């Protein structure tokens, strides 16, 4: 198997228990209406496409991604899979991909799309080294497709079932050819809908193979109450196996799909992390875009507001970032000046024991700070600070070493806290684990 597949758990079954993925939910709108789909944005109890606990802006998604990498050490793929279609939200999708590629140059990038709007962006996707795309093709016959899609929005017009299906199928074929011409691995998904396309799916697989697809995923229809097909039953295992066997004549089959959510994180089939879902909601509450933010294609990643010129630091002795926020009686306040860092203030933190009001007072105390660097922080104070516009990084090491990327907007991943204890004295060393 080619190395491009090795670390992608959807394209390589052997990687599904060792390599994780994270979907960034930055694309809420969709450009087609599938009769089997009912998109929800806030249901944490369902595991299926079209579901997400929150919607993030590109900037918020980058902050959230830092949290994901801090908690999950086996993430190999960052993807965008809705909860709508990435290219019904092309500006948000492309900006997110640019930001992630700048911040994490070695991570695999992935997309899941219906293919209608991807065409104009394929060249840039290749330049961004997006290596994997999943293309959902439920039919290659317009008559069958018109029974699956209620309408298609192409350009500024909404086309009804038959006309829209003809356009959609044309754009899907063009997209698949162009994706392969740019060296991008393509998985084709087909939803098996009993009584609609069960006998047609092998033809979809044959067509996809002729256009260059790498792998095929026949996904059993899942009843979604509220959709036009909500009354239909899920296909039985025998039918699924028969259709997969017929499709396998044309393309290798993915048989380990778990119908991922649009905010899925971790290994396939792994239960969603409550702490990361909380972080996603906290990031959603952050400013969507800081005042001084510039798009990624202007060589900018995370430039925060000039109205927040300072960075706060939790430190016991003034040399290291080595203090948990809850233990800090004071915070050091730094600014950048003439290429160096200047300590401009030492601020006393609000009194302990104040409950929720303590963290609200803390946010007010840091209202002119773009970021807080600490060795540890509880979930509630982090949420309050994020909601107030103060980014939070749990790091360790020399203050000066941390301030350099913090002020420039570069990644702080290499300074993320590990399982070691900082000495309680004033020295610069660390105790053993």
TrEMBL record:
The protein's required cofactors: [4Fe-4S] cluster
GO MF terms, alphabetically ordered: 4 iron, 4 sulfur cluster binding; lyase activity; metal ion binding
The keyword GTP-binding appears for this protein: no
Span of domain Radical SAM core: 16-261
Top-level taxonomy: Bacteria, Pseudomonadati, Thermodesulfobacteriota, Desulfobacteria, Desulfobacterales
Family to which the UniProt record says this protein belongs: Belongs to the radical SAM superfamily. NifB family.
Protein name, entry field: FeMo cofactor biosynthesis protein NifB
Keyword DNA-binding among record annotations: no
């Amino acid at each position: 198997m080619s190395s491009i597949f090795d670390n992608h758990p959807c394209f390589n079954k052997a990687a599904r228990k060792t390599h994780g993925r994270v979907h960034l939910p930055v694309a809420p709108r969709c450009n087609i209406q599938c009769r089997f789909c009912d998109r929800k944005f806030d249901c944490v109890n369902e595991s299926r496409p079209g579901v997400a606990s929150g919607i993030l802006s590109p900037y918020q998604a980058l902050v959230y991604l830092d949290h994901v990498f801090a908690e999950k050490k086996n993430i190999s793929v960052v993807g965008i899979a809705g909860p709508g279609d990435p290219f019904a939200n092309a500006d948000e999708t492309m900006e997110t991909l640019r930001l992630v590629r700048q911040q994490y140059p070695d991570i695999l990038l992935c997309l899941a799309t219906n293919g209608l709007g991807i065409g104009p962006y394929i060249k840039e996707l290749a330049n961004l080294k997006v290596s994997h795309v999943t293309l959902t093709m439920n039919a290659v016959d317009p008559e069958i497709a018109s029974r699956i899609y209620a309408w298609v929005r192409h350009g500024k017009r909404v086309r009804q079932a038959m006309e829209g299906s003809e356009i959609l199928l044309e754009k899907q074929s063009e997209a698949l050819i162009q994706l392969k011409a740019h060296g991008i691995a393509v998985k084709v998904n087909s939803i098996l809908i009993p009584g609609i396309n069960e006998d047609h799916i092998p033809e979809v697989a044959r067509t996809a193979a002729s256009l260059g697809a790498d792998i095929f995923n026949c996904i059993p229809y899942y009843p979604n109450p509220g959709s036009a097909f909500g009354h239909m039953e899920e296909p039985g295992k025998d039918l699924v196996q028969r259709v997969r066997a017929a499709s396998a004549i044309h393309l290798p089959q993915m048989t380990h799909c778990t119908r991922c959510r649009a905010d899925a994180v971790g290994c396939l089939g792994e239960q969603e992390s409550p702490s990361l879902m909380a972080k996603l909601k906290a990031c959603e509450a952050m400013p969507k875009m800081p005042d001084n933010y510039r798009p990624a294609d202007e060589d900018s990643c995370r430039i925060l507001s000039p109205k927040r010129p300072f960075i706060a630091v939790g430190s016991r002795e003034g040399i290291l970032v080595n203090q948990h926020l809850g233990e800090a009686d004071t915070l050091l306040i730094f600014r950048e000046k003439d290429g160096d860092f200047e300590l401009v203030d030492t601020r006393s933190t609000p009194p302990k024991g104040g409950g929720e009001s303590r963290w609200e007072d803390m946010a007010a105390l840091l209202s002119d700070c773009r970021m807080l660097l600490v060795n540890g922080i509880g979930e509630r104070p982090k949420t309050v600070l994020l909601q107030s516009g103060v980014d939070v990084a749990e790091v360790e090491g020399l203050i000066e070493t941390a301030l350099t990327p913090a002020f420039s907007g570069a990644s702080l991943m290499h300074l993320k806290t590990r399982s070691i204890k900082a000495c309680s004295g004033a020295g610069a060393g660390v105790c053993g684990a």
